[in-house]
């Protein structure tokens, strides 16, 4: 019986979300914080799915354990899908949230509200030794504002106006965000798959 999963992240907040998802299955959750010697994984994929698979399979090969990885970012229609897979390092390798936001706002100067449609996208990959890697995705639709609003969240949250909520992602309370975010949608889909795997006695 496989009773351990490694989450391919060093982000404590993200790890907590995954931990909660695995709770009903009584599976012990570890992260890359528990494996400090693990080298940085190069994300060379052209899509979020490819990057999530690269991360999950790289860690699985080393640990021989079940591994879950995610890759997510912001997709802006007026910028032909940018920043996309480069969301975290859009303004440079420093992964500076403020610099990334300012670059996006500069590139959208003069673009009317109706053309500023965007979505947050999350791809999740589950790699299990001896089985084909499973992927799911989740999205959250909205548009890019003209200025920052809100102090919650991180990344592009202050300039992402959530469709149907009348506020930016950074103005939502954490429990509100966790209900409607792209990661929440992807996690819900993955939970259904885990339940199926448990019924098949894979977990």
UniProtKB/TrEMBL annotation:
<dbReference type="Pfam" id="PF01725">
    <property type="entry name" value="Ham1p_like"/>
</dbReference>
<comment type="function">
    <text>Pyrophosphatase that catalyzes the hydrolysis of nucleoside triphosphates to their monophosphate derivatives, with a high preference for the non-canonical purine nucleotides XTP (xanthosine triphosphate), dITP (deoxyinosine triphosphate) and ITP. Seems to function as a house-cleaning enzyme that removes non-canonical purine nucleotides from the nucleotide pool, thus preventing their incorporation into DNA/RNA and avoiding chromosomal lesions.</text>
</comment>
<feature type="active site" description="Proton acceptor">
    <location>
        <position position="71"/>
    </location>
</feature>
<keyword id="KW-0460">Magnesium</keyword>
<protein>
    <recommendedName>
        <fullName>dITP/XTP pyrophosphatase</fullName>
        <ecNumber>3.6.1.66</ecNumber>
    </recommendedName>
</protein>
<dbReference type="GO" id="GO:0005829">
    <property type="term" value="C:cytosol"/>
</dbReference>
<keyword id="KW-0546">Nucleotide metabolism</keyword>
<feature type="binding site">
    <location>
        <begin position="9"/>
        <end position="14"/>
    </location>
    <ligand>
        <name>substrate</name>
    </ligand>
</feature>
<dbReference type="GO" id="GO:0009117">
    <property type="term" value="P:nucleotide metabolic process"/>
</dbReference>
<comment type="subunit">
    <text>Homodimer.</text>
</comment>
<keyword id="KW-0479">Metal-binding</keyword>
<dbReference type="InterPro" id="IPR002637">
    <property type="entry name" value="RdgB/HAM1"/>
</dbReference>
<comment type="similarity">
    <text>Belongs to the HAM1 NTPase family.</text>
</comment>
<dbReference type="GO" id="GO:0036222">
    <property type="term" value="F:XTP diphosphatase activity"/>
</dbReference>
<dbReference type="GO" id="GO:0017111">
    <property type="term" value="F:ribonucleoside triphosphate phosphatase activity"/>
</dbReference>
<keyword id="KW-0378">Hydrolase</keyword>
<feature type="binding site">
    <location>
        <position position="42"/>
    </location>
    <ligand>
        <name>Mg(2+)</name>
    </ligand>
</feature>
<feature type="binding site">
    <location>
        <begin position="182"/>
        <end position="183"/>
    </location>
    <ligand>
        <name>substrate</name>
    </ligand>
</feature>
<dbReference type="GO" id="GO:0035870">
    <property type="term" value="F:dITP diphosphatase activity"/>
</dbReference>
<dbReference type="GO" id="GO:0009146">
    <property type="term" value="P:purine nucleoside triphosphate catabolic process"/>
</dbReference>
<dbReference type="InterPro" id="IPR020922">
    <property type="entry name" value="dITP/XTP_pyrophosphatase"/>
</dbReference>
<dbReference type="GO" id="GO:0036220">
    <property type="term" value="F:ITP diphosphatase activity"/>
</dbReference>
<dbReference type="GO" id="GO:0000166">
    <property type="term" value="F:nucleotide binding"/>
</dbReference>
<dbReference type="GO" id="GO:0046872">
    <property type="term" value="F:metal ion binding"/>
</dbReference>
<feature type="binding site">
    <location>
        <position position="177"/>
    </location>
    <ligand>
        <name>substrate</name>
    </ligand>
</feature>
<feature type="binding site">
    <location>
        <begin position="154"/>
        <end position="157"/>
    </location>
    <ligand>
        <name>substrate</name>
    </ligand>
</feature>
<feature type="binding site">
    <location>
        <position position="71"/>
    </location>
    <ligand>
        <name>Mg(2+)</name>
    </ligand>
</feature>
<feature type="binding site">
    <location>
        <position position="72"/>
    </location>
    <ligand>
        <name>substrate</name>
    </ligand>
</feature>
<keyword id="KW-0547">Nucleotide-binding</keyword>
<dbReference type="InterPro" id="IPR029001">
    <property type="entry name" value="ITPase-like_fam"/>
</dbReference>
């Amino acid at each position: 019986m496989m009773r351990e999963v490694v989450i391919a992240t060093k982000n404590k907040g993200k790890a907590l979300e995954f931990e909660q998802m695995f709770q009903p299955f009584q599976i012990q959750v570890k992260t890359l914080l528990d494996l400090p010697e693990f080298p940085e994984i190069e994300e060379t994929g052209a899509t979020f799915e490819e990057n999530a698979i690269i991360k999950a399979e790289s860690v699985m090969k080393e640990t021989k354990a079940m591994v879950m990885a995610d890759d997510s970012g912001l997709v802006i229609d007026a910028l032909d899908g940018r920043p996309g897979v480069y969301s975290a390092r859009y303004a440079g390798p420093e992964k500076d949230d403020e610099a990334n936001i300012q670059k996006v706002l500069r590139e959208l100067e003069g673009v009317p509200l109706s053309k500023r449609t965007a979505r947050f996208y999350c791809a999740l990959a589950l790699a299990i030794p001896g089985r084909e890697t499973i992927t799911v995705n989740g999205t959250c639709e909205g548009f890019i504002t003209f200025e920052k609003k809100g102090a919650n969240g991180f990344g592009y949250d202050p300039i992402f106006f959530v469709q149907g909520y009348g506020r930016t992602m950074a103005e939502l309370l954490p429990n509100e965000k966790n209900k409607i975010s792209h990661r929440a949608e992807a996690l819900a889909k993955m939970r259904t798959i885990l339940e199926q795997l448990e019924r098949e006695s894979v977990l």
